[in-house]
């Protein structure tokens, strides 16, 4: 048994190292290429991924079957699935491009809507919680907010594999974009509280499964969603804004800030956290329905959880 575990661990490490090598090669290739080539490169690479990455394709289509049922044809789901793969590659190319841009170039590629909502939340001087999905070019969203001199930080998990995690950490530092990595949870929470106490903006990606989260409705299904945003907002009386982004037909990223949201606060902490998390997920669902091809979390087992979902 011990030998089998060691073998599996070794095989996993080799796989992570190969993924790391592939990403590094892709990174430097994209960095050297002119940005005008990115859409074509993304289409070619995205379609190749669609036809070769069978398990990922099946997962996306399974998630769409659960979310949409018969309201979308199979042909339409296939079209969206292809667009998801293309969008993931294009987002990655554009995230790499950010490292080559000056501040003006970066801001010129984005359109900001609802910035006054963010400013009014910050004027309360209690720190700001931002709820976000893995949608559009979400790394670029944080870079834009940083370049606009907003004190924004994100609660995030490092990628799998120590080599890739170190590489990402160096990239993020070179772009001067702060992140709170969730490796040591206690340490991450302390860092988050310090950030809020400085009237910083703390972003949470809330659109993926969390087994210890709150049970909420999402696409008319019961799912578990992370409660960190709702819990911290309630405990420290922070305003909460929605931070959403998606790519427009002209290639620019539209950044939308909603809120500050009205939050439920009663004597029942658990019910408040559940109700507010449910509301946040409704806002996420709204944007996913508007731009399904740009939601990265179709590649995540989002609808795992209930007996009802397993029967579907």
Structural summary, described in words:
With 312 residues, the chain is α/β, with parallel strands linked by helices. It has one domain (2-311). It is built from twelve helices and nine strands. The chain has helices at residues 2-32, 38-52, 54-68, 74-98, 103-108, 115-122, 138-147, 162-174, 185-197, 228-236, 269-290, 307-311, and strands at residues 110-113, 128-132, 152-156, 180-181, 201-205, 214-218, 221-225, 240-247, 253-258. It has a seven-stranded mixed β-sheet with strand order 1-9-8-2-5-3-4, with helices on both faces. Strands 6-7 form a two-stranded antiparallel ribbon. Helix 1 packs parallel to helix 8, helix 2 crosses helix 4 and helix 10 (228-236) packs across helix 11. The radius of gyration is 20 Å and the shape is globular.
């Amino acid at each position: 048994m011990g030998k089998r575990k060691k073998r599996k661990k070794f095989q996993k490490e080799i796989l992570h190292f190969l993924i790391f090598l592939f990403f590094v090669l892709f990174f430097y290739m994209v960095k050297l290429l002119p940005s005008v080539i990115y859409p074509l490169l993304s289409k070619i690479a995205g379609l190749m991924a669609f036809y070769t990455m069978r398990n990922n394709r099946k997962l996306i289509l399974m998630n769409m079957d659960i979310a949409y049922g018969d309201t979308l044809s199979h042909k339409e789901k296939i079209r969206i699935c292809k667009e998801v793969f293309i969008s993931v590659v294009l987002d990655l190319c554009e995230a790499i491009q950010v490292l080559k841009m000056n501040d003006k170039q970066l801001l010129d590629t984005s359109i900001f809507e609802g910035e006054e909502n963010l400013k009014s939340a910050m004027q309360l001087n209690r720190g700001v919680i931002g709820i976000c999905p893995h949608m559009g070019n979400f790394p670029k969203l944080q870079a834009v907010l940083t370049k606009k001199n907003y004190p924004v930080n994100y609660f995030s998990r490092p990628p799998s594999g120590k080599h890739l995690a170190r590489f990402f950490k160096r990239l993020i530092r070179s772009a001067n974009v702060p992140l709170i990595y969730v490796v040591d949870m206690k340490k991450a929470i302390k860092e988050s509280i310090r950030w809020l106490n400085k009237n910083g903006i703390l972003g949470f990606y809330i659109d993926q499964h969390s087994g210890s989260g709150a049970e909420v409705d999402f696409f008319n299904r019961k799912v578990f969603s992370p409660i960190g945003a709702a819990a911290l907002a309630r405990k420290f009386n922070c305003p909460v804004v929605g931070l959403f982004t998606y790519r427009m037909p002209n290639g620019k990223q539209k950044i939308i800030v909603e809120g500050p949201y009205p939050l439920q606060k009663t004597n029942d902490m658990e019910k408040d956290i559940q109700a507010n998390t449910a509301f946040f997920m409704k806002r996420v669902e709204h944007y996913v329905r508007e731009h399904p091809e740009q939601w990265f979390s179709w590649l995540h087992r989002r609808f795992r959880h209930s007996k009802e979902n397993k029967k579907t």
